[in-house]
């Protein structure tokens, strides 16, 4: 009824190729952006910031990054945790070596450094595929974590091997460190996520995104029609690592404030991000967000329900939480192997026909 | 419908009780995950002592104590989340029971003014109260543990010159803590140090112990946690390293770790800063008010073990700090800031411990504005496999502050400089 292309006239090519061709979607998008940028900062408190919103934003960036590599370009990677560590340690070294450098540049430079590392580890993808590539990226994961543990220069020779984010400001407002107000860290992460998501959306529907998808669908066919696999694969590794590096930098600087490499960036994080994009939907920007939301918010919601709402002992709740999240993952994969994004797509199809389906 | 009503009623009641000025204490615990074996007894001891106070005395000075639990599975990220949750719940102090989490929340705690108590773990240099205004790590810290281990070895050997000592450690902030002290001691005493970092969780150590066997150290210092401890002892048996030449830190001294090795663990040693066992008067009251009343937090199968008693110690220090704070401020409605003052003026005397019913549990100590670390006295225990229990084999050592003191100050200064904190002036 209200979910229709009808009546929404597109009079030029730009209108035709817009991201949200349906007026309802477009309005919902603007409304969501308004709420995210203008309403939430007014009402956010420390609990919502640290337990729900900032982790969601940061993991969304990581999921976007991995989705570019795995979902769009078809290269399976288990090195996400290691690449996030590169971003975090690059941010730490930049913050301590150049205290005047604005944190925005620190975050994006960390992403750049991670992109270079990612390209280096992406080189094997030109020769090996599938499971073998997954194992090669697994090596990256373990090597990078080992490196940041082994070489004290990376953590400025601190006794414990921990890195702690110093205080940095944007326009005079503190955005990192323990004194940062909740709305500031939230807005800082949101702005970066917005820019990156906008970039990802437009990259993936342009020439370069199409070359990634061609490689994903069949690399030999892609090569025959003139897609250079070297450029396509390495650019996917570079862009993806850039996103993951930015996520790592924010994870360390805005979210945790302090980090220790084996724990904060272990293999678990690689799997977490991989689960996010599998559940959310491979090759979908919306799927990255949905997957991140599912994996971040579901445990928090369950914990609040079981411990806060029903007053169960925390250990039983923690075990149940693992079971329920695991069961839900299996359920979703059986019922909808293409992820939450596919569910959303189907919903939209149904909505267009409603109330007169045929 | 009825259920929903009950839940919302319970929630509403929860809000009401939150508004009432109870004494709210945080219990960051890990009853799940790879370190649950260690987290459960500690948390049980803490909760049972608080239950005893509530049941027997009606709390502290008439104020009931409410413990807010937060499960984090020894995961630093979740532990830091717990800190924010506890802050929102109005907790008076935080005891994270994890060195990694402690490092994560030190800056937050100092910004919020919520005191953090780390009994025998956390950041060693937090003993410097002039820099770490809200962090307390009594009664002894990691560097004093390392010092006591070396001192004990020296007593056995006469001289350490030319000896080889290996450190087998959990490759995490916790395991890395003793390294600076050991290096300083190695320079002074002339022994050679070897390092064997074991990655989390530490169930796989065969290669390290083969290497260790080839390097043939005279003594091994074990700084493990969780499954790493029994694995290390088992590997030591496999490569035929004499188990009585292994000295653990107090986190490698849990009965469950050692018992699984059976008879062959006889003679294993570990340093500790408090006594073990159930031979304290307080256990009579515990029996009456907690265990037989069916109010124990756990299964009551770990009473008197190292970690259970350490949980009790943590609870004693927190509640004594609350008492002290009430005395100083002349009110029973405490805030975290008052609680901080309570910790800073904490005085644990032998008489007070006897009143509590824990004679000879810990050597007496007091805290002050400058000293947040306590006395630092550490003893050595030996495992008796026949009695399946620990036996104290040395007096409490006075720590060698001529080495540790300047190192604490230097590390605290480094932290202050990195974070732009000014040293307080303590009178």
List keywords for this structure.
heterodimer, A: 358 residues, mainly alpha, two-stranded antiparallel ribbon, two-stranded antiparallel sheet, B: 427 residues, alpha/beta, Rossmann fold, 2 domains, seven-stranded mixed sheet, 15 helices, 13 strands, 14% strand, globular, disordered N terminus
Largest interface: A-B, 38 and 48 residues
Shape of chain B: globular
Tally of separate helices of chain A:
15
Distance between the termini of chain A: 14 Å
Give a verbal description of the structure.
The complex is a heterodimer of chains A (358) and B (427). Chain A is mainly alpha-helical and 358 residues long. In chain A, 72% of the residues lie in helices and 3% in strands. In chain A, strands 1-4 form a two-stranded antiparallel ribbon. In chain A, β2 and β3 form a beta hairpin. Chain B has 15 helices and 13 strands. Chain B has helices spanning 2-19, 36-57, 76-89, 99-112, 142-157, 173-176, 179-189, 206-215, 228-238, 255-259, 282-291, 306-329, 336-344, 350-356, 401-419; strands spanning 23-29, 65-71, 116-117, 135-136, 164-170, 192-198, 219-223, 246-248, 269-272, 347-348, 365-366, 379-384, 389-392. Chain A binds chain B through residues 45-47, 50-51, 96, 149, 159-162, 164, 166-167, 177-179, 256-260, 262-264, 266, 307-311, 313-315, 317-319, 322, and chain B through 7, 10-11, 14, 29, 31-32, 36, 40, 69-71, 73, 75-77, 80-81, 84-85, 87-88, 99-100, 103-104, 106-108, 110-112, 123, 171-174, 176-177, 179-180, 197, 199-200, 411, 418-420.
């Amino acid at each position: 009824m209200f979910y229709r292309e009808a009546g929404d006239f597109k009079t030029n090519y730009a209108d035709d190729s817009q991201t949200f061709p349906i007026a309802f979607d477009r309005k919902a998008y603007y409304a969501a952006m308004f709420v995210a940028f203008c309403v939430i900062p007014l009402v956010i408190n420390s609990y919502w910031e640290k337990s729900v919103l900032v982790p969601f934003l940061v993991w969304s960036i990581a999921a976007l990054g991995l989705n570019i590599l795995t979902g769009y370009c078809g290269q399976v990677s288990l090195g996400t945790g290691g690449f996030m560590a590169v971003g975090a340690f690059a941010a730490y070294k930049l913050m301590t070596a150049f205290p005047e450098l604005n944190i925005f540049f620190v975050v994006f430079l960390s992403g750049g450094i991670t992109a270079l590392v990612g390209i280096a580890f992406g080189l094997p993808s030109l020769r090996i595929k599938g499971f073998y590539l997954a194992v090669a990226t697994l090596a990256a994961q373990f090597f990078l974590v080992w490196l940041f543990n082994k070489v004290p220069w990376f953590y400025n020779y601190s006794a414990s091997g921990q890195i702690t984010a110093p205080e940095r400001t944007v326009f005079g407002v503190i955005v990192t460190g323990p004194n940062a107000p909740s709305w500031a860290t939230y807005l800082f992460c949101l702005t970066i996520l917005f820019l990156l998501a906008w970039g990802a959306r437009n990259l993936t529907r342009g020439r370069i995104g199409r070359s990634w998808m061609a490689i994903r669908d069949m690399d030999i066919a892609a090569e025959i029609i003139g897609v250079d696999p070297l450029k396509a694969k390495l650019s996917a590794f570079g862009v993806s690592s850039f996103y993951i590096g930015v996520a790592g930098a924010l994870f360390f600087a805005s979210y945790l404030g302090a980090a220790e490499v084996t724990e904060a960036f272990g293999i678990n994080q690689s799997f977490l991000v991989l689960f996010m994009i599998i559940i959310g939907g491979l090759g979908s920007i919306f799927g990255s967000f949905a997957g991140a939301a599912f994996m971040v918010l579901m445990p928090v919601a369950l914990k609040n329900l079981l411990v806060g709402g029903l007053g169960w002992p925390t250990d039983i709740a923690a075990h149940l939480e693992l079971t329920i999240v695991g069961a839900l993952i299996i359920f979703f994969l059986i019922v909808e192997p293409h992820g939450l994004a596919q569910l959303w797509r189907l919903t939209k199809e149904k909505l267009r026909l409603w109330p007169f389906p045929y | 419908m009825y259920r929903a009503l009950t839940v919302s009623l319970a929630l509403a009641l929860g809000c009401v009780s939150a508004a009432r000025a109870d004494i709210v204490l945080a219990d960051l615990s890990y009853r799940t995950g790879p370190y649950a074996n260690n987290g459960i007894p500690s948390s049980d001891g803490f909760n049972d002592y608080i239950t005893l106070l509530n049941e027997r005395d009606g709390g502290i000075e008439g104020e009931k104590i409410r413990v807010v639990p937060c499960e984090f599975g020894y995961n630093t990220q979740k532990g830091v989340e717990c800190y924010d949750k506890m802050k929102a719940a109005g907790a008076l102090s935080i005891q994270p029971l994890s060195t990694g989490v402690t490092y994560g929340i030190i800056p937050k705690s100092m910004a919020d003014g919520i005191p953090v108590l780390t009994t025998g773990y956390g950041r060693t240099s937090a003993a410097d109260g002039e820099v770490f205004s809200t962090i307390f790590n009594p009664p002894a810290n990691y560097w004093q543990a390392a010092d006591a281990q070396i001192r004990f070895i020296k007593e056995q050997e006469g001289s350490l010159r030319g000896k080889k000592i290996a450190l087998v450690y959990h490759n995490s902030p916790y395991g890395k803590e003793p390294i600076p002290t050991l290096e300083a001691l190695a320079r002074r005493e002339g022994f050679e140090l070897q390092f064997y970092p074991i990655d989390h969780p530490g169930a796989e150590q065969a290669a390290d112990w083969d290497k260790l066997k080839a390097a043939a150290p005279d003594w091994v210092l074990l700084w493990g946690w969780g499954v790493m401890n029994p694995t290390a002892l088992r590997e030591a048996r496999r490569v035929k390293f004499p188990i009585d030449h292994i000295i653990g830190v107090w986190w490698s001294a849990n009965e469950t770790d050692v018992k699984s090795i059976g008879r062959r663990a006889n003679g294993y040693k570990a340093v500790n800063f408090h006594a073990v066992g159930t031979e304290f008067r307080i256990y009579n009251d515990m029996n009456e008010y907690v265990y037989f009343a069916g109010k124990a937090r756990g299964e009551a199968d770990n009473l008197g073990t190292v970690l259970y008693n350490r949980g009790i110690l943590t609870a004693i220090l927190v509640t004594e700090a609350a008492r002290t704070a009430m005395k100083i401020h002349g009110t029973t409605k405490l805030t975290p800031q008052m609680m901080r003052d309570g910790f800073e003026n904490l005085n644990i005397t032998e008489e007070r411990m006897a009143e509590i019913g824990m004679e000879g549990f810990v050597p007496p100590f007091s805290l002050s504005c400058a000293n947040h670390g306590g006395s630092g006295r550490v003893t050595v225990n030996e495992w008796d496999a026949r009695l399946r229990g620990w036996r104290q084999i040395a007096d409490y050592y006075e720590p060698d502050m001529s080495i540790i003191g300047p190192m604490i100050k230097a590390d605290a200064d480094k932290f202050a400089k990195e974070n732009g904190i000014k040293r307080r002036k303590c009178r």
